[in-house]
Design goal:
The structure holds two protein chains of two kinds. Chain A is globular. By secondary structure, chain A is mainly alpha-helical. Chain A is 74% helix and 0% strand. In chain A, helix 4 packs parallel to helix 8, helix 4 runs antiparallel to helix 9 and helix 5 packs across helix 6. Chain B is mainly alpha-helical. Chain B is 68% helix and 2% strand. The chains are: A mainly alpha, B mainly alpha. The interface between A and B is large, with 46 and 47 residues.
Chain lengths: 206, 206
């Protein structure tokens, strides 16, 4: 939290740095705990994880950039910052609905493989969280786009890794009672978060 | 509904039997992050309890006037309004804690528990029962988070609520205040809970 204060006084961070920081050092799932619910329920198979991950990358990058525009071009001039939570949620929901309709109309095969994950994304806290962090850390438009894309990719990376581990685990391991399912997934996620801590010396953004 | 469960049962189900975190693994995203300090956890939980109770009550009161098709949007707006109230209150009276909590207060909006209770319970039940259900669920949820904070803060800082409870010479477990510590603690809690759960269910057939 102290780091966030310093961040405000820091000069503009390069968008590419931000992209890599969001993927590795400040992974939205492993350091900010966002998007855990779909993470735990969707990580049973690699295929589902990939679909969900791809949908998250796309929606997160677009909505973070979109909300940046909405916040600085509409809400601030009108002095409606207090309503930003409601506005962000509505923007995300509307965007997801729009994408769903477009994909269904023009790319039916994509809809059948990806479309099922789209409605679930509206309630994914990582998407909303990325927009909130964007406001708190005062990113500009390009930075928001990079941050959104990076966070999405980071989330996808985490869910893919976990789903691969879980698939292997299901075939080979015999777990004690009560440990199977969410408990072991949480502990593996902890180990993964520990592994990602090793990246933290690489880039200093926060 | 013929045999509606008693008010006490509604309350207790959420508190223990169907504990939202341990049993359903729901809504951990937004609050796990603040469990490294007990003060933050308590404030966050107070906000959550208020939001869950009030939005369950409101959804239940409005259930006959809400069109089915747009009910999700209406529920989200109700929840968001209460969260904004909580956010403004915390910012006004506890600025330090508000700074520390960052975007996580706003993330209560996307907490799956609130939406889940509105959707599965408050929508079909009278206001008082909904209020009690919300209270039970959110208290059950708070209980788990307080337990996690109770483990993490002493091990990570050697303090509890800011008071030193472990001797000065105690080597602090830095890992406990970072993300992996939260994952491990929750993972082990779920494991312990699941280990004892089936046995309880077999014995008492309420």
């Amino acid at each position: 939290m102290r780091a966030r204060k310093q961040n405000r006084t820091m000069e503009q961070i390069h968008p590419l740095t931000l992209l890599f920081a969001a993927i590795f050092t400040n992974n939205i799932l492993l350091t900010n705990f966002l998007g855990l619910c779909p993470f735990l329920s969707m990580s049973k198979g690699k295929k589902t994880a990939l679909g969900m991950g791809a949908a998250v990358v796309f929606v997160m990058a677009s909505t973070t950039a979109l909300n940046n525009l909405v916040h600085y071009k509409i809400l601030i001039p009108l002095e409606l910052e207090h309503f930003r939570y409601i506005v962000f949620i509505v923007v995300i929901a509307a965007f997801v609905q729009l994408v769903e309709m477009t994909v269904e109309r023009f790319f039916p095969p994509l809809y059948y493989s990806l479309g099922v994950f789209l409605p679930l994304i509206t309630v994914n806290c990582a998407i909303f969280g990325a927009s909130l962090f964007m406001v708190i850390r005062e990113y500009n438009f390009v930075q928001s786009l990079a941050y959104g894309a990076g966070s999405g990719i980071g989330w996808m990376l985490a869910i893919l890794t976990i789903s691969a581990i879980r698939e292997k685990l299901q075939k080979s391991a015999k777990l004690p009672r009560g440990l199977e399912g969410p408990a072991i997934t949480l502990i593996i996620t902890g180990l993964l978060a520990l592994a990602f801590l090793a990246f933290s010396g690489m880039i200093r953004v926060q | 509904m013929p045999n509606r469960p008693g008010k006490k049962d509604i309350f207790l189900t959420g508190l223990w039997k169907d504990n939202p975190v341990l049993r359903q693994i729901l809504g951990i995203c937004s609050t796990l992050a603040v469990t490294n300090l007990m003060v933050n956890t308590l404030v966050m939980n107070a906000g959550l309890i208020f939001t869950v109770c009030m939005s369950s009550l409101t959804v239940s009161l409005l259930k006959n006037y809400t069109p089915m098709r747009i009910r999700m949007m209406v529920q989200t707006l109700i929840i968001a309004s209460y969260v904004i109230i909580v956010d403004i209150l915390i910012r006004a009276y506890m600025p330090d804690i508000s700074e520390a909590l960052g975007p996580y207060v706003a993330l209560i909006i996307t907490n799956c528990i609130i939406m889940g209770r509105c959707e599965s319970f408050a929508r079909h039940n009278p206001p008082v029962a909904s209020l009690l259900d919300g209270l039970g669920m959110s208290l059950g949820y708070s209980l788990v988070l307080i337990t996690i904070a109770f483990i993490r803060e002493p091990l990570g800082f050697g303090t509890l609520l800011g008071f030193r409870i472990l001797p000065e010479g105690f080597v602090q477990w830095t890992i406990m205040i970072m993300a992996p510590g939260a994952f491990f603690t929750l993972g082990f809690l779920v494991w312990i809970f699941k280990y004892f759960q089936p046995r309880n269910e077999g014995k008492e057939t309420k």
